């Protein structure tokens, strides 16, 4: 009977050792996966930060250029207070309200009659 008990204890010990080795292998694989994932995340995060910094630097330059162009356009569009305002805007007719051009009716007197009247 004692021999049977010993073999049973050995079998239980082997099962424990096999389960222990399986747990160790699982934990080691999980640790390697976490290290790999953290390394990939750190590299990707670093690249993202560099891209954002580069984008901010070039974007800031583009914004400065855009602001400079906008200021120039505004300066051209708004005359200086000491200067006389442009009169060309006042001479333009009002835009049509119904979408069709408004014009005076053409009469026979308005049409050119010969080469001397319409030629420059």
Question: What does this protein structure show overall?
Answer:
With 120 residues, this protein is mostly helical. The chain has three helices and no strands. The model has no long low-confidence stretch (mean pLDDT 76).
The number of helices is 3
* Number of DSSP-assigned strands: 0
Q: How would you classify the helix and strand content by structural class?
A: mainly alpha
- The share of residues in extended strands comes to under 5%
How is the topology of this model organized?
Blueprint: H1 2-77, H2 88-91, H3 115-118
Short summary of the structure?
By secondary structure, this protein is mostly helical. Helices cover 70% and strands 0% of the residues. The longest helix is centred in the N-terminal third of the chain and has 76 residues, at 2-77.
């Amino acid at each position: 009977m004692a021999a049977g008990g010993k073999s049973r204890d050995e079998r239980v010990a082997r099962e424990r050792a096999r389960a222990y080795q399986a747990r160790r292998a699982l934990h080691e694989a999980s640790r390697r996966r976490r290290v790999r994932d953290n390394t990939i995340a750190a590299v990707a995060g670093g690249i993202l930060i560099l891209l954002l910094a580069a984008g901010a630097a070039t974007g800031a330059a583009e914004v400065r250029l855009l602001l400079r162009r906008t200021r120039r356009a505004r300066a051209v569009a708004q005359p200086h207070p000491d200067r006389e305002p442009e009169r060309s805007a006042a001479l333009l007719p009002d835009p049509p309200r119904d979408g069709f051009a408004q014009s005076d009716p053409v009469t026979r007197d308005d049409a050119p009659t010969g080469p001397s009247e319409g030629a420059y």
